[in-house]
Design a protein that fits this description.
The chain is an alpha+beta fold and about 150 residues long. It contains 2 helices and 9 strands, in the order βββββαββαββ. The strands form 3 sheets. It has a 4-stranded antiparallel β-sheet with strand order 1-2-3-4, with no helix packed on it. The protein has a 3-stranded antiparallel β-sheet with strand order 5-6-7.
């Protein structure tokens, strides 16, 4: 069985000041975000890009001086909801690359809101009543059913 290796679009290591002296390695392909952490014991984590819901860039004063930053990636996975790409070079460009790849892979795989919003707080299921592929918001009003104008039906 031959496994096809994905093309790596970006890779870097966690930096100390501006030196990449670390056993934490990051890489991004068209469909995955990969983290390899450790020397004696290495942990390999992989997150599918379409499961990423938000990307944040943080730059401390020292990171600005040394040309690095931290990109936080928030995902809909149970094992690691927030992934940090700490002290990487060119953090703005990396954040933009990840955001663009997430949108591209979602469009390619036709992933819509149901993947991320299947259950609302309190275990209330979401339904797609009008068939547009977007879950409808539940009616939280405990009063009488709303009429066509938004007010109560008489």
């Amino acid at each position: 069985m031959e496994l096809q290796q994905e093309e790596i679009l970006w890779k870097d290591r966690k930096h100390w000041m501006w030196f990449p002296f670390s056993f934490t390695r990051y890489s991004v392909t068209r469909e995955h975000l990969n983290l390899d952490v450790g020397f004696f014991k290495t942990t390999y984590d992989e997150t599918l890009l379409y499961r990423i819901v938000d990307v944040r860039l943080i730059r401390t004063f020292l990171q600005k001086i040394f040309g690095t930053g931290t990109v936080q990636v928030f995902s809909r996975v149970d094992t690691q909801k927030m992934i940090e790409l700490k002290n990487i070079k060119h953090p703005k460009q990396v954040k933009q690359l990840i955001s663009q790849l997430v949108e591209a892979v979602r469009n390619e795989k036709k992933v819509v809101g149901k993947e991320f919003y299947g259950i609302m707080g309190g275990g209330m299921p979401m339904h797609d009543m009008d068939g547009d592929g977007i879950p409808d918001m539940p009616d939280f009003d405990d009063g009488p059913d709303d009429g066509p104008d938004g007010g109560p039906m008489h």
